[in-house]
Queue: 4 jobs
Job 1
Amino acid sequence: MDKGILRNVAINFVGLVLPTFVSLVTVPSYIHFLGVERYGVIALVWTLIGYFGILDLGMSMAAQNHISKARASNDADECERVFWSATWLNLVTGIIGGLIIYFGAFLYTAYFTKVSPELQHEVYLALPWLALAIPLANVSWVFAGAINGAERFGVYNTNQTIGTFLFQLLPLGAAWAMGPTLQNVLAAAVLARLIAAVMLGRSAFKVLDIRAVRPPQFGVAKGLFSFGGWMLIASVTQMVMDSLDRVMLGTAMGAKFVTYYTVPQNLVTRLNIVPTALQRTLFPRLSAVERAHADTLTQQSLEFLNGVFTPVALVALLVLEPFLHLWVGNEIATVAAPVGRILIIAVWLVGQANVTRILIQSQVNPATAARVGLFELPLFAGALWFGISHFGLPGAAVAVAGRSLFDYGVLLKFAAIRARPIVLDMVAHLAFLLGSLWLANVMPSLTSAIVAAVLVVAANLVWSFTMTPALRELARSLLSQLKLRLIPRKSA
């Protein structure tokens, strides 16, 4: 794996961590200024906007894929055609979505919510700002896809981090200076989104060297829809499966058990930042290179992910229960810890599966990956029903882990890549995880968990560097660079 990819992985990792940290820090202030009820409405509003992300129709990923290919062939004109076709299409669908959400939210607030008349009036005043947020978000996703398609992740993450700071802090400032009403908060949030969109657009223009506005072109739009439509189906299917466990748990066992399940799930899902940084980096590169190079890069990436992510998952497995006892108390921790440990293995498997998924999407056919999800959905629903009916919370977690393993195997098959060395490497690291799962059950105290984590991680790292030559070369390269940087400082 070349140094440019590793640098981009590091940039994307930082870009994912910083917004998460800012969001967590500002939540208490929002609740203090707005109150519990208003903050709940705000949370529902942004969740609703997130669901309307389907109006992107996969255009941002399609633009990223097409721009990567065009830049690889030095076709600047094609980059512009793709950029403007995707931008105009997303603007139109965003405006349609804004109108739908305006009238839909009006009817929902009027007839289906239980809020005070005063707060209901605030929602009505805030609806125009809510409608404006949809086309802004839609267009911003194309700008982001264009920048990532050019593999300018530093530019993207800088804009994204600044945009997140603005999005979190401007509404707080508006609530403090102008009053904590929904209208003020949403107006400030939309203003933050507008500033972020302008910044992303300006950066996209510079990165792609765009100098003129162009109309959309039917041929280009058709190609984008062909690719983006399957990406959209894959995203929607994934979104349904990611929430199906909680929905079925709530139906079968009640809200109390959903809390026991969701607390560890939300915690361990944060580990996704590591593989997500790698996947964000790989997609445009895999879209641009020849198939043989893409296969080599995928195998190297999976080896890298095993070497880096497995130690993180091992530590999480062993310290999860003591941490939960300190964080949420004994009642929840005792029930949630076994569930969380199984979900950690599921998250680890999903990270592996998603690398092969983007190989299929970029090199084989995005329809193949989407069809796998459609085939998997009813099987997963049946596994969840059986697991919850017979084993409760652990049954749901095992169904999720089983689905992740199934995903990994099927996607690896359809990726048409030399699978034997990849599977052998994965099975070895999975054995470490399963051994740590057993250790975590017999070493519940924090001290014993830390000691076990140090020993198991050390053993895993020794295994990785012994059995994976690429990781050894990577470690030597990083150490050499570190020495070269430190030697001049010592002599100075």
Job 2
Amino acid sequence: MNSRDCDFLLVSCTTLSSKKATYVYNNNKYDIQFTLPFSGAAAYLGSYVTQRGYTFDFINSFDEEKDMLKEKLKGNVKLVGITTKFVPELQKNALQLQQIVSFIRACNSKCEIVIGGLSFASLIQYETDSMRSLFMRIVGADYYINSFYGEESIVQLLNYKSGIGEISEVNNLFYKVKSNYLFTKQIVDYSNLEDNYIDWTVFKDRLGLQIPIRTAISCPFNCEYCSFPMYGGPYQVMSIRNIERELRTLAAVNPTALLQFIDDSFNVPLNRFKDILRMLIRNKFSFRWISYFRCIDTDDETIELMRQSGCIGVMLGIESGSQTVLHNMNKKVDHEKAKELIRKFRNAGILTYVFLLVGFPGETKQTIEETISFMNESCPTTYYMQMWNCQIGTPIDNKREQYKITGAEYNWKHYTMDSSTAQECIRYMRSKIQNTTDYLGDYAIFEFWYHFLRIGGKLDALKQIDIKLQ
């Protein structure tokens, strides 16, 4: 990755940014530098490309690494890829991507540009042909990959640009002919975890603190508000042998990393989860880690194994304090068990970050009060609350008539609430939820907790900590 010439340069389009903050603990002032998480797309797509004989480089964040991108584009770059972030509105995506494409063209007019990724594929899934074409013309890239994974399509495109095969043989590809975009053969190309082993030593010069680790693809559950199982394809898990192999390569170059296990349901099934925890302990890794955690029956042994293996925090998709709303969501959460789980995590010194989804069909003023009561009784460390996004393609979208749903995205109405009322409810809930704090608004709370632990900070002390962003 040190040469200025490369076959494939990946540019990550992210909403996250590095930032500085200060806080006071035991009368001492501390400075903290929040870092950008390492790009998961760079890790997985980069590994796939290099394992097939092509050179690879990447930009972790377009917004924060423009100077680095400009320098890399001075070389002979065969193909530039842009990963997309999820922004529901097609127009906002188009304008943002257009800026990145224009920047790349200004730096290097000869390289060709391809756009893809799960967010892009899901965004155009239900658009008309005319809207797709308009989007592509506005953005101005040379190629677009319509696949929720797309690793093999990238390799096929690189083969074509190397003189192997025809452009029509690249699957799932929109390519430009004069002013129009033609589409090649659509195939299902779900990624195979076992075939895409990551050797983290390849990225040793660019790894920061936060590293994404994927041990499973898709999700075994079918919540009504979520489209991920449909986009992600069949649920599959990586063998523990390969997880161990990957982590050993990471430990060789970044032994104190903060791992983000990005699986939707890392602790499912429970026996496999315990085996992963025992593997972490057996290797005596110095990692600390966080993960999403499904609120299922969890025994004391599991909590203790999590603590011993370096877990510092979990993200809990509680979504609502109302069993009525949870029933409509097809969300398998038992509130009494969830309260007990949060208590056990607190006793183990593990931070709990609760997600709340406001406004789903069935939501009323009464269910809002139930959620407030749940939060005040369970006392998670912190929480994040957002309005329900009425996404086309989710299971609930097929029940519009049943729930009298009109509108889409963040402008909707159904039989018990509308989006304007949901916004008001969020403001009201923030004023009523006590004994927990809406920290920082994103996952930076975990990086803060990582640093806080290193100076001897305790979980109970977080409520007295005032973090001031600079």
Job 3
Amino acid sequence: MDFQTLYDFIYSLTKLYDEAKDRNTLVEGFKQALSLFFPIEETKIYLMDEYSFLLKDFTKPWENLSQNSENEEIKKHFDNFLIQKSQFVKEKNILYFPIVQKHKTLGLIKLKSREEIKEKNEFFKVFPLVSAQISMFITTLKNSEQIKISTNFHQTLRNIAQITQTQYELDYILPIMGEMIDGFIQEHLIYIFIKNKNKKEYKLIWPNKCSDNKIYDYLEEITPKSQTILKQDGKMGILPLIVDGKPYGAIVAYNHFDKINQKEIEYLEEIKSQATATLTRAKSYIEVLEHATLDALTGYNNRHQFEKRLKEMTSSAKRQNQPLCCIMSDIDFFKKVNDTYGHAVGDCVLKSVAKTIKRELRESDIASRYGGEEFVFLLPQTNLEEATLVAQRLRASVEKKKINIEEYNIKDVKEISVTVSIGVSEYKNEKDYETLYKKADSALYEAKEGGRNRVIIA
């Protein structure tokens, strides 16, 4: 073997070791390095899964190998490597060799060349080096993935535990919880259900759609003493959320391809325990806050207080024959802010927007946080034309505001901007006092559907 080829090969492997961040990159890197010796058509890596004891494609660990002649051949060679401990098996243009760590066979590599592979090829002179290096790279990457999973898991637990520091409304908490769990358990579909007290049935809270209606039947099996329920041959895990000794909801994990393994169940059960603790805490907060008037995050009136003030203000407007307007605003693409920068930054945005808007209002105006990223304002003694000018002023102020997020250590991002969509309505002596904000809410929906960052009059 000439020195340059050997140098280029070792350099390629060394560079790959430094730069490969994921499984696909690693496999493609091996293919490029091995192309120095023969024209590689395909490089495949297969590993034995330690939980299911099935051989799996290294780049698609969520799939089981299908029953076909090609995959049966792979399984046959893996079994032979386990028994015979041979260095490689060559079949015309295909080469198989084992992945070994500490004398234990973990999987195999399949190389397919566009021409017949001959043992006089210079590759076989450095084969022990190739085999050892590739095995080391694969096991190192796998170990680093495990460390990352563990880190993400504990971060997920912390994030779920911290939700109630600034949020307490269950309609807001549960979708956030769903996003957090889905971000960690990426190889499964994640659903969160809550039990409807009145109808005694389960309602999907996150995401927006459930792909398997059989889940609803399974949820009916939950009792106050239920633990994890496995369905569909172990591909679906139902983790009951038991609050105050009663079924409150459930986290469901579903994998179309493979059984949920024991390690994943352990992760999910710990997440379920933290989620239950968070929901219990939120439920207690709600009971306390029923007697409170202010939203803890923004300092605005809370929803309960808003409904009380709405009733008072519409009655007063009707009695005194004075104009009254309502403005409803919603932060545009707020979910994207949470997904991109995290919920701590999302809370910072909520506080900043609330503060910016507050500066534009009169002391007599009533500001409330209606829920999530939605705010509602009552403007007494204000007609529709005046309220529309106020709404435009609020929209422009938020759009101009630069929100500093340096303290959150987001790479290359020191500040961000957001916009709001706004709906405006005027009280018309309706019998139902709720009509005022419902009209504003409909106009807000129209503003968002029409492109966002705009004001629509009901």
Job 4
Amino acid sequence: MTITAILRQRAGHKRTFALAMPMILSNVTIPLLGLVDTAVIGHLSDAYFLGGVAVGAMIITFLFWMLGFLRMATTGLVAQGYGAGDALGQLRVLYQAAVMALILAAGLLLLQGPLLQLALALVGGSDAVQHYAALYFSIRIWSAPAALLNLAMLGYLLGRQSPRSAMWLLIVTNSINILLDLYFVVGLEWGVAGAAWASVLADYGALALALVLVWQQLTPELRRRETLAQLTLAGSGRLLALNRDIFIRTLCLQLCMAFVTAQGARLGDAVVAANSVLMNFTLLMAYALDGFAYSAEAEVGRASGARERAGIKSAVVLGGFWSALTALAFTLVFAVGGEGLIALLTDIDAVRDTAQTYLPWVVIYPLLAFTCFLLDGVYIGAAKGAAMRNTMLISALGFFALWWLASPWMGGNHALWLAFCGFIALRSLTLSGHFVWSWRRGHWAG
């Protein structure tokens, strides 16, 4: 399809933005929260405060995002139920995902001690960094029940093509988190503990709001006690299988991202702190691109449920067009204003200088990444977890191979960033190749 033909699809662009823009606006508040965390901690007296928060948040992020299948699988299956007109089936998926969320949260709380010790042993870092990482983790882990339930309910809202509800959930949650961050860390001078408590309280506030938003989605028929009594775990096999594949995919992704933080910690406090600053830039870009991925999830899921092959193609083409433009915009912003953004986040000279050294890797990152972000959404909407799993396994192997090969001649942190950029490029290539191959063989709805 030519650029001219794409531009003429006004109705398609309007629908893409109707789904994507609320999520883009709300998603931007998520890395902004990370930026505020980095800024308030980064202006404390020593780099180990920022390094400790970076490591502690990385461990929590690894655990929670590793269980991100609760959101993704729920979105895909609810979207297909939405396309097929099966309202009770959509609610049943949410119920099953919520039960799984509570079971998994209980497991995290029971195993928090061994998980923390294992993570710190793998990450390494100075004694000061490890101390503050443990402090942050020991507080944040108590948000697990709320955080995991929120994932399931966010997936339900997105699958039902209700991005405005999802938008308000994320905006309110992260706004509360940012305000409490400033109050606890700057106002009360609680330091690292203040940043952790702000996140915990925000997660439970989000849970209350999520319950209200989901209830508003239900018709009077679905709210009846007799209907709710029909919600059981029967037929959860498809959800479990999809969760398994997405779990493996997410585990590989988080291992690679955690490896960047862990190796940075082994290279010194200034390096791990600088990498934390730069990773916040990539997260800012990622959450913006995820708006179009979420749009693709909803549209591809709906079209798959309704057996509309043309709808799938339209979602991929239009989402790809806007994802590419967004990636180019971020590359230009990072190239022109990257040093200024670094200066806003920390006034520690060693961290600033180190971050500026590795900034060029972040400049090229959006152009390598936008394709895999979009296709993640496409495959989630189509509930094709096995393909996501297999392409991620290939990409993760490539990541570690690149790091191992480049380390002897590039130096530690340059090799780390080469491997990370190569990893994201491999994800784009493998997902694109699989999509083209499977599309030509008619493996999509039609």
